[in-house]
Design goal:
Blueprint (H helix, E strand, L loop, with lengths): L2 H15 L19 H91 L1
């Protein structure tokens, strides 16, 4: 039993020996106070370049979106145009079929009238 307390003491002492990491404090970047005009101009140029880069990227994205939307609109317009052409072709086919039927009926009617006229002419010749 005497050995047990010594074992627990050794475990406790080994736990105390482990290194404990302390949280690192967050350090803000120090503000730069510029007294030299050349350095000040360089900082202004850097800031302007950053803004230009941001604006450039934004404009590129906008242009890309515009192109994509325009392509989609063009595709939709082509689909509509294609559908309209198909509908017009179908209409013209139907109209042509109707015209052909009318023409055929007219020819049949004329042929029937001519036949009647011949029959009546034959009858009149018989009686004459």
């Amino acid at each position: 039993m005497a050995e047990e307390p010594s074992d627990t003491e050794s475990e406790a002492s080994s736990i105390d020996m482990l290194p404990v990491e302390s949280p690192k404090p967050k350090v803000k970047k120090p503000k730069v106070f510029v007294t030299d005009t050349a350095a000040m101009l360089a900082l202004i140029d850097q800031a302007a370049d950053k803004e230009d880069a941001k604006l450039g990227k934004r404009l590129e994205r906008q242009n890309e979106l515009k192109k994509r939307y325009k392509a989609q609109d063009d595709e939709a317009r082509l689909k509509k145009q294609k559908r309209a052409n198909q509908v017009n072709e179908a209409k013209s086919r139907v109209i042509q079929e109707v015209k052909q039927r009318r023409k055929q009926r007219k020819q049949e009617d004329q042929a029937a009238e001519e036949k009647k006229a011949r029959k009546s002419a034959k009858k009149t010749l018989r009686f004459a």
